[in-house]
Amino acid sequence: xxxxxxxxxxxxxxxxxxxALNHKYMxxxxxxAFLFSLVFIFTIGCNxxxxxxxxxxxxxxxxxxILNTSCAVSGCHLSESDGTFPQHGLxxxxxxxxxxxxxxxxxxxxxxxxxxxxxxxxxxxxxxLYQKLLFETSHKSNKNFGSIMPLGNxxxxxxxxxxxxxWIEAGAPKEGNIVDVSLLSDKTPVLKKFDPLIxxxxxxGFQMKLEPFEIYPYFEREIFVRKPLNNSENVFVNKFQLxxxxxxxHFILYGFRNNQNLPQMNEIRDLRNKNQxxxxxxxxxxxxxxxxxxxxESNFTFNxxxxxxxxxxANMTFDVNSHYxxxxxxxxxxxxxxxxxxxxxxxxxxxxxxxxLGNTSFVLPPKKATTVTKDFRFDKNVRIVTLxxxxxxxxxxxxxxxxxxxxxxEVIYTSTNWEHPTKIDYATPIALKAGESLTSRITYNNYxxxxxxxxxxxxxxxxxxxxxxxxx
Length: 472
Fold this sequence. Notes:
By secondary structure, this protein is α+β, with helices and mostly antiparallel strands. It has 9 helices and 22 strands.
């Protein structure tokens, strides 16, 4: 029978008994018999902490051996007070995990578009939980669904992932032991070695990368490094491929809104100091960013719509941004590669432009929640391919609506996490006619004693729509 015995709390007590039994004054038969009785009773009590894997239900084993140790932990899926809860809305503690997973709708926008639920009984391929455990893309749509889980901790072993897959394929029942428990003893790593992304040829495009850098224990490290693309002429990017060592929340290539006073080239700039306070200089520089390429998936390829490409000017430089979590007691190295694939200009039917629509004129009174709206009107017919948002810490909810036309008032984007905002790539571009607008509707909660306005430091606020679009 396969069991796991929780003995670490009992070792001191049993050790004390052994010492006592060996002591010369313990040769009294009655006393020895009495102490052995205590040992027997104590051992029987310890067995209550034994997890009987073969007789417990498969889901109970998933709960005790995987969810409780890797997922339902502080800062992740333990409670609504976790910082990431507004983004995922998922609690995985005992008594809640099953109903929150099986046939439950996910908050992940890509999963919604692909009709994935957190767990679809009899269908692991369309179950978001299973997809989030994999390093290599395996979904039939070739879409990716965000960071690998557990984020900031060791990936699950091959046996654990297969145990979950078989349970889902068997209908994801709450009761019944239906999967071979020996899989839980399989400690084969999912990713035995992190291999660099093969660079494109000069005729195919460009590669940018961050060489291995340390992610300190119990630390959330986010760095920026300004790097040249090394393009001597304008180029057109129609595809990018991203590969990151697991543990990363996101990787982004930012351009600059203003090319004055740019950061030094190839210098690592941390967003957080080692005491977890913000580096204000780096934080201020974020206000000059324009999103170009990136994502939170550890290994994926993104193709822009057929016949479209993003134009990059000659001698382009990017602020290369990587964000890693480490929730363990040992350091590990982050590492990132991104390939930008280019096409000749005569192959591009529609040139994608970068959306950079910011509101700079709002006022947030102290001790008050305020909703701020602003319209951004288009003078030409456009089709929007991607939307992405940015606020600082007071931003509680960022919505983007269509203003005008037959979709007037429709909310097409929502994000409730200012640190890790939603990024939506629309399979069907959002069509707007000349004269129609995008409206940003942002709810800020100014819990401070100060009136807050637009600005670049952590004590100021922002409200920016980023994305891609093309003109018709």
